[in-house]
Amino acid sequence: MSTVFTSDAEALRQQMLGGGPGLPPVLANHPTQSAVPIDGWKSIFFGLPFFLAGLFIGYAPWNGDASRKHAPDWLIGLIASFFSLAGAFLVVHGIRGLARRAAHGRDAVAQPGQPWLADHHWHREGSSFSAFNEMLRRLVAAVLWNAFLVPFFWVGLNVRGMGRVFLLFASLFALIGLIFWARWLQMLSDLLRYGNSLLLFDSFPYFLGSQLNARLRVPRNLDAIDELTLTLRCVQEKYVTTGTGNNRRTQVVCYELYKDVTTISRSQFGGTANSPLPVFFHLPNNQPASQLSNTPPIYWEIEARGTARGADYEAYFLLPVYKNA
Length: 325
Hints:
Elements: H1 7-16, H2 40-59, H3 73-110, H4 115-119, E1 126-129, H5 131-158, H6 163-176, H7 178-194, E2 197-201, E3 206-207, E4 211-217, E5 225-242, E6 249-265, E7 277-282, E8 298-308, E9 313-319, E10 321-322
Parallel strand pairs: 3-10
Antiparallel strand pairs: 1-2, 2-4, 4-7, 5-6, 5-8, 8-9
Helix pairs in contact: 2-3, 3-5, 5-6, 5-7
């Protein structure tokens, strides 16, 4: 589900995030390769206090007078898990980032003329899109959003006076959270109808300034799509901080450096209902190569979107696009 903005609101949003006239446009609701806008040692040091705080919150009530507890054990455990799991995620994310960076350095030295071997763990056969993984990711996001609101609902229902403010806050954000469930249902429908997709490479890697030939394999119901739009795109991710003081917020923002679009109608599918669909694009010579090992990264992708009666089709495929040495 895409967010719809008025022209003025979208222009303001683009300006706040570094887009606008003469600058690369900002991609709204675009899936990112960066999990969070922090990495390496910064992620470890930032996440460690949260992890320890979660352990302390979960342990402290059991090491004191039970009569002094102001919430049930399950609620204390839930709040403690928010801190400890978030901290553990950041610590593990930082460690993995450091390990990948070290592996990239070793591979770059071992294969100096083939940067794609160090940049990413490519499969030479093609690039896959797991609708199951995407469905699961959206389900986890929806569950976490609602779990985060549970303490506010508990305070609103059990504390008089100001507790009603918490109840109003939680109810409002629960309604906003319906967007997460709608996005999950969308991808669940996509998974059940089309399955996991694969973009087969006709060559590996692809080089800037050359032709990109590939084949899109949709396991089932490709012939149910009325119109398929394929977008070749170069994306640059950045960590962007907006706001001031206590309202500062850092997020991963995707900028579109290059785009080429082709549209295929169902009548043009021909005999490809149960066979791979040919995909053709020309790669420009004046754009950056894939740099997936960078933090944040630059990468090439093909976005496939199909409109159909019932569940629409959506998939993203990473591309190994590099400069010819």
